[in-house]
Amino acid sequence: xxxxxxxxxxxxxxxxxxxxxxxxxxxxxxxxxxxxxxxxxxxxxxxxxxxxxxxxxxxxxxxxxxxxxxxxxxxxxxxxxxxxxxxxxxxxxxxxxxxxxxxxxxxxxxxxxxxxxxxxxxxxxxxxxxxxxxxxxxxxxxxxxxxxxxxxxxxxxxxxxxxxxxxxxxxxxxxxxxxxxxxxxxxxxxxxxxxxxxxxxxxxxxxxxxxxxxxxxxxxxxxxxxxxxxxxxxxxxxxxxxxxxxxxxxxxxxxxxxxxxxxxxxxxxxxxxxxxxxxxxxxxxxxx
Length: 288
What we know:
Outer membrane phospholipase (ompla), Chain C
């Protein structure tokens, strides 16, 4: 749910951009399972992307930026990967419980015809637990997995922080190393999206004060938001420098709030590209 940034602090826009880019684990920049990673590292991450202003919008925009990052790892505890403190609460060969994050950029309603005259959409931060089931796996080659993330969604304009409800996005994923080229890997995932009332209100409500002849009053309901398909590629130029390319297609056909005047079209897409550059790293390694 990457959205066009208004004139707000650059670091906020960049943080949301890194969270929202449709590509494989840009913020964490991890590699294949079971590899060893530095206990700590310092580097630079950045990217650019384009997407519709909100799910079901018929206009969109993009953002670009870069910023330093810091990561500290132990076997079950991480600081900095994905921009937060995370822990592996449970992990076996078939199941893992970890932290799950996401986000989206703020959107200026003046830049969107459907929302003209309505309040701007603040940046969103999504955070919560995730259960990951390993369905099938060939070490160092490919793997299938089922992820069940449940995230609390918060909106912020740097002055206020508001709870916007829960987001549930189960996903079936496939990843493969060495896509014809040793340093190239890829992933694809798909699944439905379900959101609580509060989050649906954030996107699709039209209060009487903002109603117009072309935008009647509407009260959104929680339920099915849509389904998406995400594809990502990672190319490891060196051990310290990786580039990413990704895309996502979302269908909102049959969505609970399909009748909202703010839901203008049933298909959205997004594209993104980015990089991570590990500048300094510890000699001590930890098992991924």
